[in-house]
Amino acid sequence: MAKSVSAAVQGTIRYSERLYVPWWNWPLPLIGGALMGATIDLGYPGLRGWLPYVVVEALVVAIILALGKARVRITDTELLVGEAHIPLEFIGEVEIFDREHKRKALGRDADPAAFVAHRGWVGPVVRARLTDPDDPTPYWLFSTRKPERVAELLRQA
């Protein structure tokens, strides 16, 4: 069963990737934050003029950094996606969905009990079916920038 990660990663890390937000996705939220700062500045003229901009932009940057904090890691014994992990012995069939086909995998064909760690700015996703009879989760579906490498490592396990 998937559990939250509270201790250090056990074993040798064979693959590690951070699903950071790329730089070209930053300007639009920052512009939106500046417009929100301007709206607050106009609505409360008694505040220092720069204060709403600094506060709102700092919040926008914190949200973007938090969204890009997720990691995909594979060790000798576990698959870790974000805060969840599962032993590799329970990984069965592994499939790759490219950018064009992931809509179907995430949409109407998805199982509501599945574990999903999707990041919209990352194109492909990997689906790893679980073989643990005690786990109600049928599969994990997660974003990765190198799906072939991830699938290869999971199949080897």
Helix/strand-derived class? alpha+beta
Q: Determine Rg (CA atoms, Å).
A: 20 Å
Largest sheet: 5 strands, antiparallel
**Shape assignment:** elongated
Strand residues, percent = 25-35%
Helix content: 25-40%
Q: How far apart are the termini? A: 17 Å
**Series of secondary-structure elements, N-terminal to C-terminal:** EEHHEEEEHEEEH
How many helices? The count is: 4
State the domain count: 2
Compute the average pLDDT.
Answer: 88
Number of strands: 9
Query: What would you call the quaternary organization?
Result: single chain
Give the spatial strand order of the biggest sheet.
Answer: 1-5-4-3-2
Low-confidence stretches: 1-7
Could you describe the 3D structure shown?
It is a single chain. The chain is of the alpha+beta class. It folds into 2 domains: 3-18 and 71-156, no CATH class; 23-67. Helix content is 31%, strand content 27%. The strands form 2 sheets. A 5-stranded antiparallel sheet has the order 1-5-4-3-2, covered by helices on one side. The protein has a 4-stranded mixed sheet with strand order 6-8-9-7. Helix 1 runs antiparallel to helix 2. The protein starts with a strand and ends with a helix. Residues 1-7 have low confidence and may be disordered. Keywords: Membrane, Transmembrane, Transmembrane helix. InterPro entries: DUF3093. The chain crosses the membrane at residues 23-44, 50-68. This is DUF3093 domain-containing protein.
